[in-house]
Specification:
420 residues; alpha/beta; FAD/NAD(P)-binding domain; Enolase-like, domain 1; 12 helices; 24 strands; globular; binds flavin-adenine dinucleotide
C-alpha cells in the first residue's frame, strides 16, 4: 500500500493526525494493533475512568445532596456490574465513533503491529507493507512497574487491570500519589473500598501547585483515605488470599488489591527507530521540535511517545500540527497554556505555569494571588455549591497577563470544557 501519510498508532494523537491529514487531501493509513481505535485514552484511560468518576459522583450526590434538596430515596447502593456496563457502553460509543470518522474521512485503518522497515516503509505484522511520503509516530505510553519484590503478583494491577475488575476490592492500596493514583483513590473511596495511598514524595500530585496538593491531601484524608507520604514500598507478599505491603520504616498494610500507578513510559522500543535515524530516549521519548518533526525531517512524533504532557488534548493538538506540516503547511504547537484538569474529588484544574515554574523562569518578577469565592456567581451556582469555598491562584509574571492558575472545585473539569 502506498500513501502520502502513514500514522503509527490510533490513539488521540494518531487518530487526530490521520483525520486532519485526510481532511487536507492526503491519502492516509493508520496502523493500530488493538482491536479498537482510540488508544489508551478511549479504551483504558480517560474515558472509562471518567465513566466511573460519574458513578462515584452520583453516589456522592445520593449520600450528601439529595436529602438536603428534598429528594428522598429509599436507600441507595452501588451495583458495580451496572457501573461497568455503563463504562463499557461509553467506551464502545467513543471507539466506534473514531472508526466512523475514519470511514467518513477516507482514512484506511491497517490492523496490526507496525515497525519501520526503512525511512519510507512500515512493515505490518500479518499484512502488507505501508509505503509513505511522511509518517507520524503516535505509539503512546505504557504503565511503568518499579523493581519491587512481589510486585509480579496477580493482585498488583496497573490502571488497565483495575479498570477490568468485576468486584470492588474491600481494601485497595494505591502505589503512587500522582494524578492517576489519586483519581482511582477518589473513585474507590466512593465505591466503598478502604483506600491507602503510598507515595515516596512529600506530596500528592507533586507537579501541581503546592497548595492544591495540600488541599487534596486534606480532603482525601477527611474522607478516610489513608495517606503515607514520603514512604517507599519495599516488598509485597501474596499469601493467596491477601497482600501484605511493606513500606517506610518497617510499616505494613494488608489489602486485597494493589494499584501500581508510578508513571508511564513512552512506547519507543521495538519500532525500528534506530534503523531509520529517529532519535529517542527510553525515558523521555522521541525527540521532536515545535513542528513535531523528529530528527528525520519527513517523520513526525506526537502524544505520549514524544511528550512531556501525557494528556489526551496535547496529543490531539500535536497530531493536528504534525498532520498539517506533513501536508506542506507550517504549523507549530504552543504549549504556554495547557489545561490540566484532575478528576479527583475535589477536582483540581491548572493552566499555564505553576507558581514554582513561574519562579524558576522569572525569578522574583512573579505575583500570585488567592481568592476565596465561588467560581460561578449567581444564585443557582450558590445553591449547587459544595461545602468548601473555591479557590483561585493566579501567577502573573511581570504584568497583568496571567500565565498560570490553579483552581479547586466540584466538577471543575467539566466547567473548563476539557477533554479529561
Ligand atoms: C487511567 C488513565 C486515565 C487518564 N485520564 C486522562 C484524562 O482524564 N485526561 C487526559 O488528557 N489524559 C488522560 N490520560 C492520558 C491519556 O490517555 C494519554 O495522554 C493519551 O491517550 C495519549 O494519546 P497517544 O495517542 O499519544 O497514545 P495512546 O492513547 O497510548 O495511543 C497509542 C496507540 O498506539 C498503538 N500502538 C503502539 N505501538 C504500536 C505499533 N507498533 N503498531 C501499531 N499500533 C501501535 C497502541 O495500541 C495505542 O492504541 C489518562 C491515562 C490513563 C492511563
Amino acid at each position: 500500500m502506498q500513501v502520502d501519510v502513514a500514522v503509527l498508532g490510533g490513539g488521540p494523537g494518531g487518530y487526530t493526525a490521520a483525520i486532519r491529514a485526510a481532511q487536507l487531501g492526503a491519502s492516509v493509513a493508520c496502523i493500530e494493533r488493538e482491536p479498537e481505535l482510540g488508544g489508551t485514552c478511549l479504551r483504558v484511560g480517560c474515558i472509562p475512568t471518567k465513566a466511573w468518576v460519574q458513578t462515584a459522583f452520583a453516589l456522592k450526590e445520593a449520600e450528601h445532596t439529595f436529602d438536603k434538596l428534598g429528594v428522598k430515596l429509599g436507600g441507595f447502593q452501588l451495583e458495580f456490574g451496572t457501573a461497568n456496563e455503563w463504562k463499557a457502553g461509553v467506551v464502545k460509543q467513543m471507539t466506534s465513533g473514531v472508526a466512523s470518522l475514519f470511514k467518513a474521512n477516507g482514512v484506511e485503518w491497517v490492523k496490526g503491529n507496525g515497525t519501520f522497515k526503512d525511512a519510507n516503509t512500515v512493515a505490518v505484522d500479518g499484512g502488507e507493507d505501508v509505503s509513505f511520503k511522511s509518517a507520524i509516530i503516535a505509539t503512546g505510553s505504557f504503565p511503568l512497574r518499579p523493581p519491587i519484590e512481589g510486585l509480579d503478583s496477580e493482585r498488583c494491577v496497573d490502571s488497565t487491570g483495575l479498570l477490568a475488575q468485576t468486584e470492588v476490592p474491600k481494601r485497595l492500596v494505591v502505589l503512587g500519589g500522582g494524578i492517576i493514583g489519586c483519581e482511582f483513590a477518589s473513585i474507590f473511596n466512593r465505591f466503598g473500598s478502604e483506600v491507602t495511598i503510598i507515595e515516596m514524595l512529600p506530596s500528592l500530585i507533586p507537579q501541581e501547585d503546592a497548595d492544591a496538593s495540600k488541599e487534596l491531601a486534606k480532603q482525601l484524608g477527611r474522607r478516610g483515605i489513608t495517606l503515607h507520604l514520603e514512604k517507599q514500598c519495599t516488598k509485597v507478599e501474596d499469601d493467596g488470599s491477601e497482600l501484605t505491603v511493606q513500606f517506610g520504616d518497617g510499616e505494613t498494610v494488608q489489602v486485597d488489591l494493589m494499584l501500581v500507578s508510578v508513571g508511564r513510559g513512552p512506547t519507543v522500543e521495538g519500532l525500528g527507530l534506530e534503523g531509520i535515524g529517529v532519535e529517542f530516549d527510553k525515558r523521555k521519548g522521541i525527540a521532536a521540535d515545535e513542528h513535531r518533526r523528529t530528527t528525520v525531517a519527513h517523520i513526525y512524533a506526537v502524544g505520549d511517545c514524544a511528550g512531556y504532557w501525557q494528556l489526551a488534548h496535547t496529543a490531539f493538538r500535536e497530531g493536528e500540527v504534525a498532520a498539517e506540516n506533513a501536508c506542506g503547511h507550517d504549523a507549530v504547537v504552543d504549549n504556554r497554556a495547557v489545561p490540566r484538569p484532575i478528576y479527583t474529588d475535589p477536582e483540581i484544574a491548572g493552566v499555564g505555569l505553576t507558581e514554582a515554574e513561574a519562579r524558576e523562569q522569572y525569578g522574583d518578577d512573579v505575583a500570585t494571588g488567592m481568592c476565596r469565592r465561588a467560581v460561578c456567581r449567581g444564585t443557582r451556582a450558590a445553591a449547587r455549591r459544595g461545602d468548601r469555598p473555591r479557590r483561585r491562584r493566579a501567577v502573573r509574571p511581570g504584568g497583568w497577563r496571567s500565565r498560570g492558575r490553579t483552581r479547586r472545585a466540584d466538577r471543575l473539569g467539566r466547567r473548563r470544557g476539557n477533554a479529561r
